[in-house]
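Quick one:
INPUT:
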């Protein structure tokens, strides 16, 4: 995502620096940061969360369990983004599970905390609403993608979305194993392996350990079943 939510936002599977402009504001007007250990489940689907979290440093995975009991990755959070976004209604269960993939430094923000911050800076309220809107777009994208019966279409949807991220532009490849790709799109590893093998034979991808290089981006653009994020 672009760092300024007041501009025309592009979309990213990895939420990073989305609220960068408010980092110092939040540090100044919030309780001191807390640390969260690696591998901690910060929120779990079906359980209430007391707050939302502003990520100062670290990497967070957001996932759900699909109908078959397998984890599906919805996205990742990096610094200067807000996560456990369904935790504002503190007495209601959250839907997603968020896990610390690295040690984290975070600010805890309750609904009451946010109300006070909005009074201090009304523009923050506007930009936070836009941020929620962008994440809602991701959820809609994910729901649309999952409605497709084709593993190839699901994988293409995921690849095209990920190719818009800052990580992809920095790395030049998707840093995922085939098992992780399968988890992300709600398919089995065997299904993804077959699709990737076919794509490699036609020269569309190059596959290495935890590296998927896209050689013909236009091929994947032609396969996507949703065009809202191009």
């Amino acid at each position: 995502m672009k760092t300024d939510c007041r501009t025309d936002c592009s979309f990213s599977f990895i939420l990073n620096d989305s609220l960068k402009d408010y980092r110092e504001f939040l540090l100044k007007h919030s309780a001191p940061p807390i640390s969260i250990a690696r591998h901690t489940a910060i929120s779990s689907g079906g359980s209430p969360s007391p707050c939302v979290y502003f990520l100062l440093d670290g990497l967070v995975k957001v996932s759900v369990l699909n109908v078959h009991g397998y984890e599906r990755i919805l996205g990742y959070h990096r610094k200067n983004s807000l996560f456990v976004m369904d935790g504002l209604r503190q007495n209601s269960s959250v839907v997603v599970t968020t896990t610390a993939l690295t040690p984290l430094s975070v600010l805890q923000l309750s609904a009451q905390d946010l109300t006070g911050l909005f009074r201090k800076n009304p523009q923050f309220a506007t930009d936070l609403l836009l941020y929620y809107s962008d994440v809602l777009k991701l959820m809609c994208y994910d729901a649309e993608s999952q409605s497709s019966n084709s593993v190839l279409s699901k994988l293409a949807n995921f690849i095209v979305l990920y190719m818009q991220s800052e990580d992809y532009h920095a790395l030049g490849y998707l840093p995922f194993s085939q098992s992780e790709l399968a988890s992300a799109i709600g398919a089995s590893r065997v299904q993804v392996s077959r699709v990737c093998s076919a794509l490699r034979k036609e020269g569309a991808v190059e596959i290495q350990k935890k590296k998927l290089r896209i050689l013909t981006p236009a091929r994947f653009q032609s396969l996507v079943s949703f065009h809202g994020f191009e």
